[in-house]
Amino acid sequence: WSGYSLNAYQGQMRFGVGGNGGVKVATAAITTGDWHHVVGTRTGAAIKLYIDGSLVDTQTDTMTRNVSTHLPLTFGSINNGTEYNGLLDAMVDDVRVWSRALSDSEVSTLHTGTIVTPSLTDDLVGVWNFDSADATDSVGSNDGTVTGVDFISDSGRTVASFDASAGEKIH
Predict the structure, then answer these.
(1) What DSSP element (H or E) covers 110?
(2) Is the pLDDT of residue 136 over 90?
């Protein structure tokens, strides 16, 4: 596959960049049962994974990867081109995509929930906060299609609840 993947697998959060017949992945252990703020970035050869505002893994990718893809952005699973796999069994809230890598300080600002600075709206491509109990992109026109996902209230907010055994996803 080619593109980006942020997923959980066997107790690990993984941010992968794939293309040209391979993939480079940054990983870190994650605890279940708690909310976590997870960010993956790529700048040049550096692939970084942050959990709860802290940089937890950096990988150097010496290969130039073609990340152009016809595959849709998918939450709750990995689209490998022929099927959906790597299904997620978790709750997800406030997904954001930028057309640039965030800096360490921007990731920290997002995690602490301080006022969003103008730089954090620069190059923002999509926001799916699930507050409307659907997959509407609140900054662009990248609305998602929901397959089986429930929208529930948790900790005072509306979240997308994915059941891996049912193959639920948003794409």
Answers:
(1) helix 104-112
(2) yes
SS3 state at 128: strand
Q: Distance (Å, rounded) from C-alpha 171 to C-alpha 146?
A: 7
Cα separation, 5 vs 2, in Å, equals: 9
Asked whether 159 and 91 are in contact (CB, 8 A), the reply is yes
Cα–Cα dist 150/16, whole Å: 27
> What confidence tens digit (pLDDT) does each residue in 51-109 have?
999 999 999 998 888 777 666 677 776 666 665 666 778 899 989 999 999 999 999 98
Contact assessment for residue 68 and residue 82, using Cβ atoms and an 8 Å cutoff: no
- Name the maximum alpha-carbon separation found in the chain: 44
Structure confidence at residue 40 (pLDDT): 93
Which residues, in sequence order, are CB contacts of 167 under 8 Å at separation 6+?
A: 77, 84, 87, 147, 148
Spatial separation of the C-alpha atoms in residues 6 and 39, rounded to whole Å? 8
What is the three-class DSSP state of 141? coil
- pTM of the predicted structure, to 2 decimals: 0.87
